Amino acid sequence: MDYDKSSDLKKRYLANLHQGATPFLHKNANELRQKQTEAEQTLWALLRNRQLKGKKFRRQHAIKKYVADFYCHESKLVIELDGYFHTEAEAKEYDTIRTASLNELGITVIRFWNYDVINNPQHVLQKIAGYLK
To answer: What's the CA gap between 94 and 106, in Å, rounded?
Structure first.
């Protein structure tokens, strides 16, 4: 009986954590974890193992129909790292729609340029820390 309750709680937690992400999206997220950019590697080295305010971050996290670069479930915070591609009109429009969709779930989305993460990581960490609950 206790096993059933535990299993049910885990299913509900994962459903909330991933907001209905499909198995295909989970596979895509896993592949992205294997091919991190330099900026993602830099930030992950600073966020992993609860190094920032004791918060757990996940990298390349499947949520709803998107893959977030980094996600802190406890603070409902997505961190996106953007490169040159995100300056194009089509990418900006997609990012706006994506952010609005995640905001509807109560998730805050913050963005940083890859350049800033690589060249001024402590400033980026300060900004992130300000969003952590």
So the answer is: 19
Residue 12: pLDDT band (50, 70, 90) is low
Look at the domain 2-129 and name its fold.
Endonuclease; Chain A (3.40.960)
- The dihedral through the CA atoms of 46, 48, 50, 56 has a sign that is positive
Tell me which H or E stretch contains 61: strand 58-63
This prediction's pTM: 0.83
Helix, strand, coil percent values for the chain (each to nearest 5): 55, 20, 25
Q: Are 109 and 100 in contact (CB under 8 A)?
A: no
Angle at 77 between CA 73 and CA 81, to 5 degrees: 120
Could you tell me which residue, 67 or 12, shows the higher pLDDT? 67
